[in-house]
Amino acid sequence: HVGCGAAFEACAPAIAAQIRESIGLSRSKARIPCPEALQCVGVLAAALGPVWRPHAAGLLDAMMGAGLSEALVQALTAVAASAPELLGDIRLALLDTLSLALAKRPFSQFTHPARVAALNAALTTGELQGGALTRLALTTLGTFDWGQVPLLEFMRDHVLVYADDADKEIRQAAVLATAKVVERYAVAVRGRDGGALQTTPSGSQTSGAGGQLLSVRAAKVVEKVVGRLLVSAVADPSERVRLAVLSTLHGTAALDDFLAQADFLRALFVGLNDASCAVRALALQLVGRLATRNPAAVNPALRRHLLQLLTDMEHSPDSRLREEAAYLLE
């Protein structure tokens, strides 16, 4: 039960020792996977609270040495939620692991070489390898709480390269992770400055209420990332990937100030003619929402497209085309 820490205080060290031994078995030459040992760390952190905190801290290195896995990510998430003071150490260790998996180098240049070697060995001998390891690393980047850790340039340089991977699952994981990180960044900037981002005549970004200039360098990184996301949204060979990117962009208004720029709108207009009706519907809804941000660029093209849909619905000899036009006009 949650809150039963006092009753377990005496036996917590013995439990931690057993968990450490079980994790060690999963790292031995025998390679006996024991995800339950990792899960126990997270469950006990939630149940025992402060009593388990020092033991969880002492188990972090052993946990990271077990290699990247869903059980590890879930356990670290649970520990971070129950012991926020460990969140910084968890973030650094997990980011180094993810960076080694994706970029073949640690995230932090200050990570000790011995620790880098240990994390590399854990990845090399871990249960997950190849595409499965890459997908989990990308997914974790998009879902874990990274706080104020600067990830923009890492996503641009080392994650978006996977948007061109031959595996559509990896491409999807890469673009979704990037979209989530950029979205969180934009939300944080808007919340800190008290208003939406706006483009100044010089091309830099400023917050609407606070008036503080967003770093020109950061703005350029965001623009490049958003541009690459739109390439996937309209040109990826997989309909599933195109839908996933557009759904993410449609689900948040945090990036609308960037999407409303003329160059990005032209890419979205391409999506209005996608082979998939579902993709066209999302693109149409997104373009319609952006009309309030940049009416001069959106409204003429949107009117032409709506007129074409009306024409198709009334006069097209193709029944499927008439049905899709009616659906898009709803």
From TrEMBL:
Name of protein: Uncharacterized protein
Single GO term (MF): protein serine/threonine kinase activity
Stretch forming the signal peptide: none
Organism: Chlamydomonas leiostraca
GO cellular component: cytoplasm; nucleus; TORC1 complex; TORC2 complex
InterPro entries cross-referenced by the UniProt entry: ARM-like, ARM-type_fold, DDR_Repair_Kinase
PANTHER family per the UniProt record, alphabetical: ATAXIA TELANGIECTASIA MUTATED ATM -RELATED, SERINE_THREONINE-PROTEIN KINASE MTOR
GO terms under biological process: negative regulation of macroautophagy; TOR signaling
